[in-house]
Amino acid sequence: MTNKSKIRVVVAMSGGVDSSVAAYVLKKKGYDVLGIFMKNWHDTNATISKECPWLEDSYDAMLVAEKLSIPFQVIDLSKEYKKKIVDYMFDEYKNGNTPNPDILCNSEIKFDLFLKIAMDLGADFIATGHYAQIKRTQLNEKTFFHLLAGRDKTKDQSYFLCQLNQFQLSKTIFPIGGMLKNNVRKIAKENQIITAGKKDSQGLCFIGKVKLPDFLQQKLKPKKGDVVLIKDTHINYFNKEKANNYDALSQNYFYEKFDGDLVGYHNGAHYYTIGQRKGISIGGRKNPLYVLSTDVKENIVYVGEGADHPGLYRLALKVLKKKIHFVSESKTVLKNDNLKARIRYRQALQKVSVFQENNFYYFLFEKPQKSITSGQFIAVYSDDELVCSGVIH
Length: 393
Hints:
single chain
């Protein structure tokens, strides 16, 4: 039997209940546990509130470590975080895309830089409080690691882990991945862990709740432009001519200024994303306005009236071959007839078929999908296993 006291696990302690209980579970199982808090952002200029200040969170993490009698330290990765995550965000918004910093934060910070630091400290594994699971299989004497959804489907965070690779999974433990959230809080409460009733953090990874335009204005300057209303009668998208043309089905609508009516002004097309409702600030209509498309070159925001405007929907999307990531390193998984996918966290899984043509993978959905946005990630599942992901073109 393995002596767990000789297996060192470094836990990424965020100051929340999930990572606190993850550390508790590992300590109870007899592992040699070390807690580390990552200070990756401490500029509060654009934050909405003090719900997620790093100082308070690091203090809570330290108190939990003291309660569990495990070593604890704080590491500062703010320079690396700015370079790998924040600067990338600015560049993507500048180019009219909508990035997902939480996914990059996991693949580039938590499971890369943090993993390397942990291994330098003698770690055999790292652990986090994610609601996800890892399964091992053997084939021809080689071990494969499979990323599975968390048991609690209402909290499943596998989507945020969709860019992890085999090495990262081989060095990771998700202690609470097989638990339900209410049981996690129950364990914390029963063991008098200070974070038992703490609210789940929201907003950008390590930054917290932000006013996104204010945050983006740190680098992307306001620029007044037109808001153009597109009537739903202008669009005849699901026509027979496009039925077998994956490239056409996967394209964003392309509008021109004369396609609609000028209804107002905005402060910068790069501040907006497809499907956005808040922040348009143009009233006087029966239904709210939603962003259908942005043109950052001409600085125009195209909007449609109502949540069911056909301009919000597409049947397909595409991903450049070089931007597809296979978690298990096997491309044969895309031949599965029962694949499902999601294009945002907590979206219900949608039936999808995958085709490869030229330099792209095309994902054709059974039903039209709302607010498909360039720069976001599609995550593809076979049953409960997340098999691949990619950046939407």
